[in-house]
Amino acid sequence: MKKIILVALLCCASAQMISAQSSTEKNKTMNVLRHVVMFKFVDKATPADIKKIEEAFRALPSKINLIKDFEWGVNNSPEKLNQGLTHCFFLTFSSEKDRDAYLIHPAHKAFTDIAGPSIDKVTVLDYWMHK
Amino acid sequence: MKKIILVALLCCASAQMISAQSSTEKNKTMNVLRHVVMFKFVDKATPADIKKIEEAFRALPSKINLIKDFEWGVNNSPEKLNQGLTHCFFLTFSSEKDRDAYLIHPAHKAFTDIAGPSIDKVTVLDYWMHK
């Protein structure tokens, strides 16, 4: 009987640990600051220039651990309301302090030096996530 | 002994069910189409007009089940690169077909009728999520 209780306790403990992880993920959404960056490239930017910028941006989360989440993609809206912007990079921070520190981070500065000459227009909006 | 095995099997099965849920969540990210909508309001739009539009947009997921995820927020970027856009609404679809059906959905059309007179500029980018 003791063995049954022990096995049950161990299994339930592991189930609870997994459940606790999901709960932590949920709590994180309470503290989510989005940073939406959109680019229009200059006409003379080559596919190679653009690929280099995509890869440089994608490398930032590995260099700046203030970035809590990162995703990106290329516009495919049929609405033609993208104002020439073709690329969207969508970053998540946990605080305005982290976002501000990212903006002046040397790795971010180095990225803007790489991207700058190929960029015609940048649009940036940040927002605290509401549902 | 049989009881021990039974309890262990039951507990492990429940742990696996929880784990499988996380796995399903992960797989969903493979099929994520983002729809980023940003507004600049006309100067004469009152706080009440803007609040009405926020609430009308927030009501759309309850009316259009093609919307898989929804969040929104008000710009607080210190970079002043928001091109006058103040509000960001961030929707997720599972396919371009669903996104296209949303665009012509009667509830979406009704929303644009409400919002239209208060909107000076709209910027929209859609993208398949890449990490």
Compact overview of the structure:
The structure is a homodimer of 131-residue chains. By secondary structure, chain A is an alpha+beta fold. Chain A has helices at residues 2-28, 47-63, 96-103, 106-115; strands at residues 33-41, 69-74, 87-93, 119-128.
Structural summary, described in words:
2 copies of one chain form a homodimer. Chain A has one domain: Alpha-Beta Plaits. Chain A is built from 4 helices and 4 strands. In chain A, helix 2 packs antiparallel against helix 4. Chain A is α+β, with helices and mostly antiparallel strands and 131 residues long. The radius of gyration of chain A is 21 Å and the shape is globular. A 4-stranded antiparallel sheet of chain A has the order 2-3-1-4. The longest helix of chain A has 27 residues, at 2-28.
